[in-house]
Amino acid sequence: MRIIGGTAGRRLLKVPKGFDVRPTPDLVRQAIFNSLGARVVSARVLELFAGTGALSLECLSRGAASAVCVEKSNHHADFLRQNFVNARFSASQLQVRVQDAFAALAQLAAAGHQFDLILADPPYGEKNVGRRSTSFAQQLLDDPHLPSLLVRDGLFVLGHSKRDTLELPEFWRETKKLKHGDTVMRFVQAAG
Hints:
Blueprint: H1 26-36, E1 44-48, H2 54-61, E2 66-70, H3 74-87, E3 94-97, H4 101-110, E4 115-120, H5 136-142, E5 150-161, E6 172-180, E7 183-190
Parallel strand pairs: 1-2, 1-4, 2-3, 4-5
Antiparallel strand pairs: 5-7, 6-7
């Protein structure tokens, strides 16, 4: 795994051994950032289920102002911090919150924080034919705090398995969908 583009392009990212973390693949990240283009420049970024921090580090490499990474595992957060140091970004650009993503959403919303870009590629849910998804991706879409964390015209980019059929609540509108292998990336904005 590596950072694909920008000032830290080609720097390798450390990834924990085993199957506890599933970093967003290079080709998927490349498609995401080709779609985002200049939207990343000077953006305030929130990454949920951050894992190695690959999405946030890609944003910082491409000119984002700052990133807040939320990762529940202390072990994974250590890898994220190592990747940040190895990429040589300014210490003021990154905040790592070691906590549950949904608790962080509530706290960030209560504190009035807002972001230009929110990224999440959580652990995949299972196939859900004939029933509503219970995956982390669906839970994020359903979370009432998340839309308030986006600035006007802010963008939420959400990854999920193509087997996981999600329902888009009425407070979101989809602007784009990318498919690559088993991965689907949805670009959504707060409706209204």
